Amino acid sequence: MRYIIKLIMKKIFITSFISLILSFSVNAGTDGENNLSKNSKPVKDCFESVNRATFALNQGLDKVLFKPIAKTYRVLPSPVRTGTSNVIVNLSSLITIPNNVLQGEFKTAGINTGRFAVNTTIGILGIFDVAKKMGFSKYEKEDYGQTLGVWGVGAGCYLVLPVLGPSTVRDTAGSFINIVGGDPYYNASTHGNNEYLDRSDYMLTKALTAVDFRAKNLETLENLEKNSLDFYASVRSLYLQDRQRKITNTNATIEILYEGDWEDIESN
Fold this sequence. Notes:
This protein is mostly helical and 268 residues long.
């Protein structure tokens, strides 16, 4: 219990420290046009030329690597793909739950903790979504980038990361929190020194996450690229809209490229 309390306090301290740094550096560097969580002013694409080059690189990798793998993945039996997707979602609860707490959503944190416990045990590591059949409310992912936004940290400049895809200064910092104590699964597999998990297990799940979402959205991506005058600008716009929706918890129906994965989002 003492270890768990110390771990939670460490997460809060790290998140607070990064939030403080970002609130000064980001606001100073973008003329106040980055605070997506407080107003609708546009996020600047400060590094557009570099971003477009990275975007082109990612598209090239997608065509020669991710898309062919995704097509092969879709040939697998539906129960295998469903089980894989369920395991990935179940693991994401380990990031969602602490962010529920940090955002003051204690009831949701409790529900998601129960969901994770049920699916991990009865659902065999999450292969079967037993919690859904038991009537648990709809699961919504949360991450540290969203938490920083809820706390009032501005988005900063728009970024396109190699392989990972669309992001912002704030969301990149949020992702960094995962590897400094914010992702229990990363810690257990990379620094856990146990006989059950190692770094390769973590990398495998991240690769499966990308392949799973890519397979689900083969047609979506193709249609968006085909019908967009500027595919780069379309992806940027959709990403920023979706991040705003998630930070403010507004309802919408949107398909968006999120941190390297296409995520189907449908809210009532």
